[in-house]
Amino acid sequence: MKVPSYDDLARSIPDIHPRDTFDQVTRLVPSAEPVVTCDSPGTLRAVRRVPSGMPPANALFACVRGRSQAHAGAAMGLAREFSPRIERHEDGCVVLDVAGLSRMLGDAHGIAAQLERMASARGLKARISVAPTQTAARLLAIADVEPRVVTGDAAAALASLPLEVLQQLVATPLKVFDIMRRWGIRRIGEFAALPAADVSSRFGQQGVAVQRLASGFDARPLVPDPDVPRFIQMMELEWPLETLEPLSFVFARLLDPLASSLERADRAGAAIRLALR
User: Fold this and answer.
1) Could you please report the per-residue DSSP string of 132-164?
2) C-alpha dihedral sign at 220, 170, 91, 194
3) What is the pLDDT of residues 32-59, one digit of tens each?
4) Which of 21, 31, 67, 109 could pair covalently with 125 via S-S, beta carbons 3.0-4.6 A apart?
């Protein structure tokens, strides 16, 4: 099965009416966005910001981790079958954005089940997890414990995992882990529950960053692998278009070769992004 959708598995951005109330706007706008509304011109009514790293309400990521280094290439190939928005990590995890697959494969459990079926058909021994953040998906795949599919509170799902699992996400050794063990902290949830101000004063911003990982927050957005093929067609016009009718001919000249390229690659497009200048 091939399900490419490129950057446009992207979530739709809702229309916001100028007269929408603050509560209406905050329900429409993804939770990672700051929200500002005004009761009257020039009068600020409310501002709400959520912590950076919190995913939009419909965010969903899967992680495929081969059980040995020999399976790393196969894990990457499996991820590419599902989404072009994939990123591989040094710890062997391949993270893919699967937020746009629910219409075809169902909920998070259905997506995980399909990944597991295809991995089994390929003879790939892999740990597969699905969660609302990249960090949570990676930690669950590394730990290889149940549940490996999380749709609610990521921090609660990670709380019982050993601190050593979190340590595998950090590229360089940090003294924070040694000190946590001396303090008797053995679980990710125990570390996440510490007051952030105390962690900051003791370990600095590096310690705060690790604690945010313990809560399941992402340090940064997913950075798609540059090796994933992108299908792009463009055309520079010699004259401006003043009506919509000529635009249909331009679309035909762009879409025909684009469709041929997709067919040669045995791919199908789930969305198309159009840019006019």
Assistant:
1) SSHHHHHHHHHHT-S--B--S-HHHHHTTSBHH
2) negative
3) 444 444 444 444 444 444 455 556 667 8
4) 67
The SS3 assignment for 73 reads helix
Question: What CA–CA distance (Å, rounded) separates 213 from 168?
Answer: 11
Per-residue burial over 253-277, b = 16 or more CB atoms within 10 Å of its CB, e = otherwise = ebeeeeeeeeeeeebeebeeeeeee
What is the token pair recorded at 216?
Answer: 């399941």
Structure tokens at 85: 């928005």
Which strand ranges, in their side-by-side order, compose the sheet holding 86-88?
A: 86-88, 93-97, 61-66, 126-131
Q: What is the torsion angle, in degrees rounded to the nearest 10, for the CA atoms of residue 35, residue 40, residue 42 and residue 45?
A: -40
Region of residue 6 (left: phi > 0; alpha: psi -120 to 50; beta: else): left
R_g (Cα) of the chain, nearest Å: 22
Residue 273's pLDDT is 76
pTM: 0.66
Decide if 128 contacts 79 (C-beta within 8 A).
no
> What's the CA gap between 188 and 92, in Å, rounded?
21
Cβ-in-10-Å burial (0-12, 13-18, 19+) of 208 comes to middle
Q: What is the pLDDT at residue 31?
A: 41
- Beta carbons within 8 Å of 22's beta carbon, 6+ residues apart: 35, 37, 45, 46, 48
Q: Nearest-CA neighbor of 138 among 160, 115, 165, 159?
A: 165
